[in-house]
Design goal:
The protein is α+β, with helices and mostly antiparallel strands and 443 residues long. Helices cover 11% and strands 15% of the residues.
């Protein structure tokens, strides 16, 4: 049974990490706004559509304070670095700069060396098999709606070039990332049917119930998503990956309110949200452009249906629906946007090379990585980043939504939402897909 907390005013906020969330809409979020939002200040911020400015009733939070102690290098706990080791490659192990370590790439085509060097990336369409140091083509390996993703390395972040004005909403500059664990990930975003089955409830939180049972589930609180993951683990006799603290479970399951969530780590064998790095690695499947099959074609964001995103996902240029209660994508002034738009059933667009559908558009997907500010400092090599032990403030969402413009569906685009948000999650813009770490025997 979840413990009950009372007398808490839960805040409503979501941050759009961008200069523009929809073409033609005013009130953009600036870097100053983002810094204030990251500190959870007493201000109003905007959701990923850019049209939901709401006053925020803040509770008390601690601002992230960098902690380096005796560390010479490595992460400072707030998205920055404690320092950089001299030379052309990182030689940082456990916060200390190593000396006398030589580059041992040898004949490796890609991946990390034994000294922490990055031996190089792979050509577009390939991924790195780190254990062999070879570039290989990804292949779909999906069973019962779950797709296998092998461990490996890739260049995380914006790879298309400087085509967007500053401040850039994309994760840049790109950084080599190593993921040391195989995992499986849902081929499609979690559906309304799955929600009702796993949560054993008739209460469907989705904003668009007329879309059908195969549409992504929306409208649930972030803590409710974590409870869904735990209950799915229970059904499969697996370890629960989240401990939810100080929860008020007196309301509907989709409105679960908690003080914070404790993540037991990526070696938990149950179901969980992907880290931001895992999400992008699986979504890219070897792609190095904004979208699976091509670059962003314009300098600015728009709703043009001939964008590369229209080939693989639903966004403001092609998300026309005919069911009741739809949204109005054309209210932002873009003539290419439909008057009646909404989410659509999963799997209608082509899958990527790993077998994943809808990684661009439809609903923006909540990840298990906390938002600690802009990742603007170059990171020569990151190993398994984004496995945050505590989720109690802002978390990253990825992929864009049916109301998002073309830019917001770029695979390197980042937005953030507060875990205590209520109104933002009720917009129907956010969903999720789960992952599970696999042992070597399972991989």
């Amino acid at each position: 049974m979840l413990s009950v907390s009372s007398g808490v005013a839960f805040s409503v906020a979501v941050v759009c990490v961008a200069t523009a969330c929809n073409a033609g809409h005013s009130g953009r979020v600036t870097p100053t706004d983002l810094a204030r939002a990251a500190e959870l200040s007493e201000s109003a911020v905007s959701d990923t559509r850019g049209d939901l400015d709401v006053p925020v009733d803040r509770r008390s939070f601690e601002v992230c304070v960098p902690s380096c102690d005796e560390k010479q290098c490595g992460p400072n706990g707030c998205g920055g670095a404690c320092g950089k080791c001299p030379g052309t490659a990182p030689l940082c192990i456990d916060g200390h700069c190593l000396t006398g370590c030589e580059d041992e790439c040898g004949n490796k085509e890609c991946g990390p060396s034994s000294c922490g060097f990055y031996c190089g990336g792979c050509a577009p369409g390939s991924i790195c098999n780190d254990s062999a140091g070879l570039c290989v083509e990804p292949a779909p390996n999906c069973v019962d709606g779950w797709c296998f993703v092998p461990s490996g390395s890739f260049l995380m972040g914006y790879t298309q070039g400087a085509t967007f004005p500053d401040p850039d909403p994309n994760l840049k500059p790109e950084s080599p990332v190593v993921l040391t664990r195989d995992f499986e990930i849902q081929a499609m975003e979690a559906t309304r049917e799955q929600w009702v089955e796993v949560m054993q409830t008739e209460a469907d939180p989705s904003k668009y119930p007329l879309c059908g049972p195969d549409c992504p589930v929306t409208g649930m609180a972030v803590f409710s998503i974590l409870e869904f993951a735990n209950r799915l683990s229970d059904l499969h006799a697996l370890e629960r990956c989240y401990v939810l603290h100080g929860c008020d479970d007196s309301g509907p399951l989709h409105d679960l309110k908690c003080d914070f969530a404790e993540f037991l780590g990526p070696d938990c064998n149950g179901y969980r949200l992907p880290s931001e790095a895992e999400w992008e690695y699986a979504a890219r499947a070897g792609s190095v452009t904004c979208f699976q099959h091509g670059p962003h074609k314009g300098e600015y964001s728009n709703c043009s249906p001939d964008e590369a995103v229209a080939e693989v996902g639903w966004f403001c240029g092609n998300s026309k629906v005919d069911y009741g209660g739809c949204a109005h994508c054309n209210e932002f002034g873009d003539p290419a946007a439909p008057a009646c738009c909404g989410i659509l059933p999963g799997g209608l667009k082509p899958a990527n090379a790993f077998g994943l559908h809808d990684v661009s558009g439809n609903v923006s997907e909540i990840t298990g990585s906390a938002f600690n500010g802009f990742f603007t400092a170059p990171q020569p090599l990151q190993i398994d980043p984004g496995y945050d032990e505590v989720l109690d403030a802002l978390v990253i969402s990825r992929g864009g939504s049916y109301q998002a413009n073309s830019l917001a569906c770029c695979l390197s685009y980042r937005s953030a939402i507060e875990v205590y948000s209520v109104s933002a999650m009720k917009t129907g813009l956010f969903g999720f897909r789960l992952v599970r770490t696999l042992s070597q025997e399972q991989g």
